[in-house]
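User: Structure with calcium ion, tokens only please.
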Amino acid sequence: MLCRDTDKAATPALSVTDITKVDFDRDTLTLTLDVSYQVANGSADEGEIRIYDNNLAQVGDAVEIEDDAQTGHVPATGTERFELTLQPAQFGLFSAAFSAKQTATAGAANRDGQPKVLRQGVGSIFVGFLDLAARDLDGNWVPDTGEDDPGAYVHFNVDNDDNSNNLVPNPPAPVFTPPIINAGKYPGADYAQDQVAGEEDDVKQALVTIAPLPTTGKVRLVRGSSILRAWHAWNKGQAMLDFDANNRKTWNLADEEERGDFRLEWKDSLYVEGYQDGTTTLELQLLDAEDNVLAHDSVTYNFIDADCGNQPTSNDLTYWIGTALYSQRGYYEQLNPNLRRCEWSMIGPSSTAYNCMAYAVDDVNHFYNQAMIHGFWGGPGTTLEQDVVRFFADQDLQLNRQRPWGPQFRLLQGEEATLENADVIYYSGFHAAKKRNCGCGLGKWDNLMFAGKDAQFDVMEHIWNQISAGQPRFLFQRQ
Ligand SMILES: [Ca+2]
Ligand SMILES: [Ca+2]
Ligand SMILES: [Ca+2]
Ligand SMILES: [Ca+2]
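Assistant:
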């Protein structure tokens, strides 16, 4: 049964309102802290603040709070400075405890004749190193200065590195019918699998550093949304990190098992996957036991892919090169070894009605081979390259213009000849591609994403320099 306390001094609000790291010298291991407190004015006659280190051992002596104003009471608010010399093992989570009590004289008036001891107000601060670092799609660590903006670019894991069943997942529906009927937009996509056997290379490491790792408080990872998934292993084998309904995963560092799980299983083995395209964040937080965030670091993730069309199929064998049969993906990768998965997609079906040169000038009714271009836009003694420039400008030498309805293109030269200015690239291997101006890449691929038609096969969007069609020879701008 509880008894009502009839002592004159009711328990006041008592708290450590702020702890500020004034100075920290790694060489001399000296730390200066300012601890601010608050207490109901006049309720405490004597007060003191003690500092505890990462091991919960008191550091130095308690600082007594002086009654400078001679009121007989502890001031309602104040700040005390601590200059501490420490051992490395003491760093991590520091806490300040503010306690106060009545004087013996004041206590004599209480029912039991004893001075009333007020509860402690506690605050914490982390003095150490906390960092979240991310690898991008090239495997490079994103510099700290760029990790918020623009952030890390990582593939939305739409490709099929393990060549799994092309009928999974389905939907989303394909943009047009792919070679394997009933295959979805992302045939065999790795994002839809819990494990990717073999060559998965789109799930990228994130590294958590908290040094030293406190033995109290909590560590938390917070994702901006569920388009981000995290795994224990690069090939998604083993555990997926189980974010809760609030997109948080929390480890209690005071709990030996949870601390061990974080330290041994996740801290150095965390891999981030793009589960959808889009932008989100991953934040590392260190909290005290009361859920106050003591330190944090956040990384922006941009999950990108060539998403305008279908990902290529890989289980079919319907494409010929010479006498060899290839799948759709195999065919394009064989012809273009620099193509990077997730960064190209099929945006138009196979057709023998038109070719790359026609596609580049928005024409789907002609198959302009070199002889045709020479015949219509060239003249006696002109070279193929001269003919190509006139083809794009639609200037024929013989006044028999073949496509007066079509757009005209100006050859860019000198300083004007940039990808930003270009609408069409002509490659020396008699190939042309036109700029996409799509949102794929979330900014990273602006002015870099082009599309071209394979002679008798599909239309593909790709990064401008990932195809093998000779050197980029001319840049043209639409008039
Ligand atoms: Ca960082
Ligand atoms: Ca797969
Ligand atoms: Ca993959
Ligand atoms: Ca891949």
